[in-house]
């Protein structure tokens, strides 16, 4: 299959780094920037629904196999052969919520791969903070002093850290306001200096374990990024590119796609951010929303500026081709492309990266024994998660049931599961005899959470469920908690805030607002994650450190998987 490119060229005539008139003869330099966002440790290629290809048996089409470090390495080599002035960067969430091959080794194989591929800098993503600040600093700087000693330094005996720099202009210590990570990075190629400013979404503390980032403040993205523009100008860079882990989606009903040139239908949190960022910024590499787009959004001066995101898992690489004038520190033009990383094509023509092939095989050899452990033959070909986080799902029902069964000896009568913690269908790809392995289960719940139980009153449970659609969970960010068998309720999205949850019942009996109920949830939710702060009001809290959520699901599947039908149980009535 031919490589698919999206091309957008903007003639900018921007004095990105100097307001003085041109005083020297121009010295143009062509610089290529390749960006990778939301990789999530996917060392192997995965299905990319954005491109459909014929099935081998001729019965229709299927998603293209795309991404993986072997094919990414092949693309980088090809681009560098054409333009040695190439810089490889990231848009955040390079690690975290990763498949078993990377996650069982604490994502050290992914960091090693990206380092060997020559990545220079990346925005921090929220998932980089999944295991807390101390562990993230270890991932940056190296060493084996980890909160997961059973996983750390098992890929290589002495983990050396990332050779690239994670950037966080808006991440500071509460105690003194200093940055634990670099706010910007400058790379010099072909005599030109390209500056990168990195930031993560300011709402990060609400979507990671709050205890892991308790000593940090996550500041406004625009203010923090703009703060460093004059710093880079003073350092006489020739162009400024923002790497930000915040993104958008194309409007409902839009016909634009990842390969639409200069898309106009972008909406979401990245739009107001882009509109306010300093005009000296030439382009914005975004992430977080796992979307593919190549759009233009006017900067504060009204000039069009590229905002690009490359789907997820390395399916697309964002490509910027800049022409800069190194003599006068100006940007002459920017061209934006989303490049499809076609694994099959590169395998066929022999252009996979051999060093990456060896690295992947090494990681697989260290994890396959665990990954390939048989769990059960499901009663259904596949149990799916919801297409969005505002719905009940068949897989969400199963996970909640598994967590309830695992905590019944602690007195639990209801279990709650956050939809964002369900990372894949079970299995991701249908298998012969509906076979499920530990790797399939791990892909569903890769965070390493443990279980917890606590007492909540009926009134607190109602207040908890109201938080599904309020605050940071309002509107398109709604998060419907998945619930266990026997618990039902109605969610009326059109009702006034605070009055959307009704008809709460446990085993057909209305919940008593004054009565106490023992409830179960994962450790992430138990500390108020995903904006469910009512959990922090719970009494008689027991953290079951020895009971991993993935193990609870494995046990449940072994006992009941053959009877599962893969259908939604309709425990939640949602009125829109």
UniProtKB/TrEMBL annotation:
A family per Pfam = 5_nucleotid_C
Which residue numbers delimit the Calcineurin-like phosphoesterase domain? Answer: 33-291
Q: Which SUPFAM superfamilies match?
A: 5'-nucleotidase (syn. UDP-sugar hydrolase), C-terminal domain (SSF55816), Metallo-dependent phosphatases (SSF56300)
Where does this protein come from, organism-wise? Deinococcus hohokamensis
What span is annotated as the signal peptide, if there is one?
A: 1-25
Q: What is this protein called?
A: Bifunctional metallophosphatase/5'-nucleotidase
Q: Which family does it belong to?
A: Belongs to the 5'-nucleotidase family.
| 5'-Nucleotidase C-terminal domain span | 381-537
């Amino acid at each position: 299959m031919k490589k698919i490119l999206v091309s957008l060229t903007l003639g900018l005539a921007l004095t990105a780094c100097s307001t003085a008139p041109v005083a020297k003869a121009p010295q143009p330099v062509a610089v290529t920037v390749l960006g990778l966002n939301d990789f999530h440790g996917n060392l192997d290629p995965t299905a990319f629904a954005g491109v459909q290809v014929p099935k081998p048996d001729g019965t229709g089409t299927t998603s293209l196999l795309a991404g993986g470090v072997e094919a990414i390495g092949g693309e980088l080599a090809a681009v560098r052969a054409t333009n040695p002035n190439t810089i490889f960067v990231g848009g955040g969430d390079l690690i975290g919520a990763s498949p078993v091959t990377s996650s069982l080794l604490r994502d050290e194989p992914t960091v090693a791969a990206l380092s060997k591929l020559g990545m220079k800098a990346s925005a921090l993503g929220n998932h980089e903070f999944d295991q807390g600040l101390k562990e993230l600093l270890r991932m940056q700087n190296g060493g084996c002093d980890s909160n997961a000693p059973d996983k750390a330094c098992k890929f290589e005996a002495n983990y050396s850290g990332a050779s690239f720099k994670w950037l966080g202009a808006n991440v500071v210590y509460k105690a003194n306001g200093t940055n634990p990570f670099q706010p910007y990075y400058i790379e010099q190629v072909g005599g030109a200096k390209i500056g990168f400013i990195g930031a993560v979404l300011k709402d990060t503390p609400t979507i990671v374990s709050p205890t892991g980032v308790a000593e940090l403040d996550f500041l406004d993205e625009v203010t923090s990024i703009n703060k460093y523009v004059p710093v880079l100008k003073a350092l006489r860079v020739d162009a400024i590119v923002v790497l930000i882990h915040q993104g958008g989606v194309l409007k409902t009903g839009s016909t634009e796609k990842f390969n639409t040139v200069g898309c106009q239908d972008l909406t979401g949190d990245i739009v107001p951010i882009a509109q306010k960022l300093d005009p000296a910024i030439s382009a914005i590499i975004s992430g977080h929303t796992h979307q593919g787009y190549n759009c233009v959004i006017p900067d504060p001066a009204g000039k069009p500026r590229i905002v690009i995101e490359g789907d997820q898992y390395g399916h697309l690489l964002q490509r910027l081709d800049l022409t800069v004038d190194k003599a006068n520190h100006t940007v002459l033009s920017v061209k934006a492309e989303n490049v499809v990383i076609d694994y099959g094509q590169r395998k066929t023509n022999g252009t996979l990266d051999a060093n990456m092939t060896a690295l992947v095989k090494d990681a697989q050899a260290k994890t396959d024994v665990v990954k390939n452990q048989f769990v059960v033959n499901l009663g259904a070909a596949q149990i799916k998660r919801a297409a969005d986080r505002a719905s009940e799902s068949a897989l969400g029902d199963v996970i909640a049931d598994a967590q309830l069964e695992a905590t019944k000896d602690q007195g639990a009568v209801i279990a709650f599961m956050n939809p964002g913690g369900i990372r894949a269908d079970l299995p991701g790809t249908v298998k012969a005899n509906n076979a499920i392995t530990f790797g399939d289960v791990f892909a569903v719940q890769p965070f390493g959470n443990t279980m917890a139980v606590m007492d909540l009153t009926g009134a607190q449970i109602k207040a908890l469920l109201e938080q599904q659609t309020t605050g940071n969970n309002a509107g398109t960010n709604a998060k419907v908690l998945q619930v266990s068998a026997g618990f039902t309720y109605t969610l009326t999205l059109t009702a006034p805030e605070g009055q959307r949850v009704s008809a709460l019942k446990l085993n057909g009996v209305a919940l008593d607002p004054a009565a106490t109920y023992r409830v179960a949830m994962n450790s992430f939710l138990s500390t108020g994650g995903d904006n469910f702060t009512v959990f922090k009001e719970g009494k008689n809290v027991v953290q079951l450190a020895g009971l991993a959520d993935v193990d609870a699901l494995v046990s449940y599947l072994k006992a009941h998987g053959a009877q599962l039908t893969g259908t939604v149980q309709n425990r939640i009535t949602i009125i829109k």
